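quick one, 270 residues, struct below
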Amino acid sequence: MSLPWRDEVGVYLSPRRIVLVRMQRGLRPRCVLEACFPVESASLTQWRPALEALHQRLADSEWTGAGLRIAVADHWVRQSVVPAVAGLDRTHERQVYARHWLAQTYGELGDDWQVALGESLPSRPFVASALPTALVAGLAELAAATGVPLLSVQPQLVVAYNRWRSRLPDSGWLVTLDEGCLAAAQLAPHGWERVHTVRIGADWSAELRRLRAFGRLTAGASTQRVFVDAPRWLRAVALPVQEDGLEWLEDERPHRSALHNVVRARGMYA
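---
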């Protein structure tokens, strides 16, 4: 009698490339396949070409029949740390307030954006993330068309935080870098203190100065280190940064989580 475990495919979905890893589930989950594919896209703000490329790849037999866990590139995400407000105990109330708070930074959020809330105690600030509603619906339709469950859809910064959480201090910054985008979460003992997402150019020396600026923003904290999750190709063109309080996050060992393996594979291949 076979055990009812379904394989999982972890996906990193970004404007220029998609990364896929297949996890064979069981008592000892293991990564059995991984690959990186380019995406033909004229703009870093458009997600439809990446969704179409993912649809094509998931039609290949080596990726079929597996539940999907998807990390969405920070390019398409709107995020903020929402301060705690007394009396907001129901999820609907927190959703409404989170939309109001996000609107102060990004402008009014209509039905075009789907807001998800991070876990926290009612008395603590929480992270709110907004993804394009059409993108989330497109991913759900893709999963339904291929007959597999869509297990999770999360922003890249959140996925990276969960992956590296055990290595991160109570204060400092976690930064995710990709072509055209930098996202950073300021860490605090209760979780995230604040979050920034900015467009970036091809001048990596300028981006390193930006990262150092993030480190200086934590002046007076017990640590001012900046932890950077970035593809290897981007690290290769960067100057040595250890002396400036920056640390590249990397680990080539396979993991038992599909999304953790996506973080690893993204760093190696994307």
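The chain has three domains: 8-75+133-156, 77-131, 161-250.
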